[in-house]
Every structure is written in structure tokens, then in C-alpha cells.
Design a protein that fits this description.
About 70% of the residues lie in helices and about 5% in strands. It has about 290 residues and is mainly α. It has 2 domains: about 20-155, no CATH class; about 155-255, no CATH class. A two-stranded antiparallel ribbon has the order 1-4. α2 (about 20-45) runs antiparallel to α5 and α12 (about 240-255) packs antiparallel against α13. It is globular, with a radius of gyration of 21 Å. The termini are far apart.
């Protein structure tokens, strides 16, 4: 076999190997629950950001912020939209018509992102990607209500989502170094915690921890993001990546207001790197 043929074979094996559906299925359930919690937390303010009742930029002003903006909902349509949105999420979680549930959820979230585009941040766009991948993934090869359905499936949806996490962390660290000032002073994180997003826990830490400890937190966070591609790709280092990443995300959740949703979303991506045997054992315990 030639070297070129060997490389093509490895490439095809990486993207299209047949694997157990447990990783993608576990991700589907957990990302669905996270998405449900996230939307439920914001839904109490839905009339303000999704309907004509709230503040929205004029069409002239919107052009400068985002060329493609969808109009807000009439206030009377909000319950119907909520039923469609949350119904699709629940269907996705419980494995009812997964592809259609993911497509409806994607369309609903896409509308939200374009109707309220100013507040559609990274977490919204990552949910969009997740729903799109789940909609395109092979259907009928998932665990549903504790019973095994179908055979093994192609690994490509898992690979796309794994690479998404690696890119998310790696580019975040790269931007902090190249475009930010995280290497210029050890007090960037210390100053950021004091801003708009400061939580009660963050305020307590600012008041009681020595200032120099924030430099340690800062460089630990930066080091994790820069090394994340290696930590998650190189299997012997994955346990280190899991522990370091968990601490990194918990620090964000504890000190920055409402970013617990983002931390939960990121931690769900970690499941895609777990061994199939580990997830199978966890699934059996949950079902039991």
C-alpha cells in the first residue's frame, strides 16, 4: 500500500469509522437539557427581547449592526412560539423524531438570534451548530428511553463537535495573547471580574483573596485554553484536560453573572471525548 493510500485510509477512518451511538446520544440528551435550562432562564424576559413590546433597533440602525434582521413577534404569538420551541427541545431530549426536533429547534433559535441579534452571543451560536449537526446526523441509531435502537453509526458528527470544542478553546487563548493584554499584566482577570458580570461569589473573592492570586487564576485560564487542543486530542492527557477544564469552567460560572449557562454548555462537549465503555456504564446506572 502506498503512503498516499495509507493517508487516505486513515483520513476516512477518522471521519467515517463506525462507532457505537452512545457518545452522540449522550451529548444529544445533555445538550438538550442544557438548552432547555438556558431558554427557560431567559424566557421570563421573552416579551422584552422577542416581541414588539420590547426595545428594538430601527431598520436603518439595524443595517449597521447586522444586515439581516427578522422582525419581532406580535405579543399574542409568543405562547405559540414558546410551545414550538420548548416542544422541539423536549422531543430532542426524549428521542422523538430527532431529526425533525433538531430542525425545528434550529429554526426557532435561528429566528431568536436574528430577531434579537444584539444579544445573540457565542452560546447561542454553539447551540445552533449542535442542533444542525444533530439534524444532519444518521437517524434511527440512538438509545431511546433506555432501549437500544439501531446499529453503529458514522463517527463524523462526533468529530465535528469535538473539533468545535478544540477550536473554541484554542482560538480564545490565541486571541487573548495576540489581540489582548493577558501577557502584559497579571491583573487583567482581576479587573474583569469587577465589571458588570461580577457575582456575589466573585465579590467575596475580590475582597478576601490576595491580589496576586488573580494572576495565578489568569495564567491558569490562559494556559488551559492554549493547551486545550493538545489536552483533548492527545488521549493520555485527556484526564488532565477534563479536570483542568472543569475547574476553568466552574471559575467562570462562579464569578461571572449568568455565564453558568456557557460553562454547562462547554462541559457537555467533554462527554464527546469520554470512552464509550464509561458512558455505557453511566447510562446503565442512570436507567437503573
Amino acid at each position: 500500500m502506498s503512503k498516499k493510500s495509507s493517508l487516505i485510509q486513515k483520513w476516512n477512518h477518522f471521519w467515517f469509522e463506525s462507532v457505537d451511538s452512545i457518545r452522540l446520544d449522550t451529548f444529544r440528551v445533555c445538550i438538550g437539557v442544557t438548552f432547555f435550562i438556558y431558554m427557560l432562564g431567559w424566557w421570563q424576559y421573552a416579551p422584552e427581547w422577542l416581541t414588539e413590546k420590547g426595545f428594538h433597533f430601527s431598520s436603518e440602525a439595524s443595517y449597521w449592526f447586522a444586515p439581516f434582521v427578522l422582525p419581532p413577534l406580535p405579543i399574542d404569538w409568543l405562547p405559540i412560539f414558546g410551545l414550538i420551541l420548548f416542544g422541539s427541545i423536549l422531543a430532542l431530549i426524549f428521542g422523538w423524531h430527532i431529526r425533525w426536533a433538531a430542525l425545528v429547534g434550529f429554526a426557532s433559535l435561528f429566528y431568536i438570534c436574528r430577531a434579537d441579534h444584539i444579544t445573540a452571543f457565542t452560546i447561542n451560536k454553539l447551540f445552533l451548530l449542535c442542533l444542525l449537526v444533530l439534524a444532519a446526523a444518521p437517524e434511527g441509531k440512538y438509545w431511546r428511553l433506555g432501549r437500544r435502537q439501531g446499529k453503529k453509526q458514522s463517527v463524523w458528527p462526533v468529530r465535528v463537535l469535538q473539533i468545535t470544542l478544540v477550536i473554541q478553546y484554542g482560538t480564545a487563548g490565541f486571541c487573548k495573547v495576540v489581540h489582548g493584554d493577558w501577557l502584559d499584566t497579571p491583573y487583567v482577570l482581576w479587573s474583569q471580574i469587577q465589571g458588570l458580570y461580577c457575582t456575589d461569589i466573585g465579590a467575596w473573592m475580590l475582597e478576601n483573596l490576595p491580589k496576586w492570586t488573580w494572576g495565578g487564576f489568569q495564567y491558569s485560564a490562559l494556559g488551559f485554553e492554549l493547551l486545550a487542543p493538545l489536552l483533548f486530542i492527545y488521549k493520555p492527557l485527556r484526564k488532565v484536560g477534563f479536570v483542568w477544564g472543569f475547574g476553568f469552567q466552574m471559575m467562570i460560572a462562579a464569578t461571572m453573572h449568568l455565564l453558568i449557562y456557557f460553562s454547562l454548555q462547554m462541559l457537555v462537549f467533554y462527554l464527546l471525548f469520554f470512552k464509550e465503555e464509561t458512558l455505557l456504564k453511566l447510562r446503565k446506572r442512570v436507567i437503573a
